[in-house]
Amino acid sequence: MILRTNALPVKSGSAGYVTFPDIEFGGSYEHQKVNGKYYMSYMGGKLDGYETDPLMMGLSFSDSPIGKFTKFENPVLSPADADAREGEKLTLYKSYMFEDKELHTGHKYVNFYNAKGINHKERIYLAVSDDGETWHRHGEKAVIDETEMFENHRISGDAQVVKIGDVYVMFYFRYTEGVGAYNNFACSKNLTDWTLWDGEPLIKSEYDWENVYAHKSWVVKHEGIVYHYYCAVNDKGERFIALATSEKI
Q1: For residue 150, is pLDDT > 90?
Q2: Rg, the chain, Cα only
Q3: What is the Cα–Cα distance from 89 to 111, expressed in whole angstroms?
Q4: How far is residue 199's CA from residue 189's CA, in Å, rounded to a whole number?
């Protein structure tokens, strides 16, 4: 465990995410400029409460990665869009946008995000863009859909994609009622077709201070060490930012 925080009362709000990073595993991970600007994607809604439905995806920009960001006037993706798939017509959650240098999708930029429909089950979907600002859904179905694979499965979400050689690795978490939440991964060579890891989870609950959830990963490699940051939750309602390390890929 590396950081402990106490819960704060929350009304309506926004949550922002790293946008257009260098995705090479062991690379710089730097926030890349697009169109001469730095962008930050975020989710937000109009109603009070924590992640109160419906939520949609916004985009903002700045001249500096640590400066003041200006929001676009309208969402870039919304559950109310005409092309919204059935499983994303209630809320859109975390987004992860980066450049598809090989143009696997036929578009310059890609965006993996988790969303849910009226059955409240979350899947990971793909959207694409040619300019980094105007986004369109790609494919008719989710790229990660585990709702039919596991009984009482509720969430596949919070994707982070890195590139190792010619393989893309997606770190994400699963949440299944009665099992809990833990971190897993999937692999792809084209950003569309993904093979899910079905072995031991990358991270799962092991200690008393994380005995409910060990999930929501962010993984980086630096000087030969892999650092796996994640959110740990216990049965006291406490949440922590935790860290696991490895010398293996």
Answers
A1: no
A2: 17
A3: 17
A4: 20
Q: Which amino acid is at 79?
A: P
What residue spans of 150-242 are helical by DSSP H?
Answer: none
- Residue 248 confidence class, pLDDT cut points 50, 70, 90: confident
Peptide bond into 54 cis (omega under 30): yes
Are 157 and 122 spatial neighbours (Cβ–Cβ below 8 Å)?
Answer: yes
Least confident of 2-6, 48-52, 75-79, 89-93: 2-6
Nearest-CA neighbor of 95 among 38, 143, 41? 41
Please choose, from the candidates 221, 21, 226, 14, the residue with its C-alpha nearest in 3D space to the C-alpha of residue 112.
21
pLDDT above 70 covers a percentage of the chain that reads: 95
- Kindly report each contact of residues 231-236 with a partner whose C-beta sits within 8 Å and lies 24 or more positions away, as own/partner: 232/1, 232/205, 233/181, 234/208, 234/209, 234/210, 235/211
The structure tokens listed for 76 are 């870039």
Structure tokens at 50: 């924590």
Give the residue carrying structure tokens 């369109």.
Answer: 136
